[in-house]
Amino acid sequence: MTAKALQDAPEQATPFRQREQLSGRALTIICITWSLFQLWIAADFPFYLSELTGLKLVFNGQEARQIHLAFGLGLGLLAYPAIHQLHPAIDRVIKYLLVAVGVSACLYLFLFKLDIANRAGLPNRFDLFFSLAGIACVAVAVYRSLGLPLLVVAGVFLLYVLFGDADYVPDAMRWKGASINKASWHFWMQT
After folding, report:
1. How far is CA 95 from CA 29, 80, 86, in A?
2. Which domain holds residue 121?
């Protein structure tokens, strides 16, 4: 490749470059929106506006955490490529699908908080689906952003929770274990 071709290469619109522009715009929008949300929950203005309008514009700590998790998970999944060797169109679909599932799992906690509180420890099928989907999306985001070592450490602890009652676990570390339902409820629904 000549020097002139190398200089012109960045200006060519390749699929990878288009993908980065689209992800860059989405990342910028999410970051600005998250910053505005931070300012919103830190300010006194929502309290005054809520009194004036009668609308619920103030978020409690748990609601703020769930929305924060949605923003953070969306950024974590969107900022890094899904699979490096895939065609950019397929990679984009996987990336946005994971973002949609992860953010939906976070917002499920926010939107159905009263139903979840009324069930308290008795998850239904939707609770389990969104719990497992959320845990899987967090695992993918951890792998993409921090790498395999932290995912292995988290996986070891998750296996200990699920199989802590197995015979091969030393007596000093053995406990009764937890079912996948109980573990997913504890790890996700009590965020």
Report:
1. 16, 9, 11
2. 16-189
| Alpha carbon distance 150, 53 (integer Å) | 46
For 86-132, how does the pLDDT look when each residue is reduced to its tens digit (9 = 90+)?
A: 777 888 888 899 999 999 999 999 999 999 989 887 889 999 999 99
Q: Is residue 5 part of a domain?
A: no
Q: How many domains does the chain have?
A: 1
Asked if 158 contacts 183 with a C-beta cutoff of 8 angstroms, the reply is: yes
pTM assigned to the model: 0.81
Side-chain-side CA neighbours of 99 within 13 Å: the count stands at 21
Residue 39 is assigned to a structural domain of this protein: yes
Residues in CB range of 31: below 8 A, 6 or more apart: 75
Taking 50 as the pLDDT cut, the residues of the chain under it are 11-19
Q: Hey, what amino acid is at 22? A: L
Q: How confident is the model at residue 4, as a pLDDT?
A: 60
How far is 50 from 117, CA to CA, in rounded Å? 24
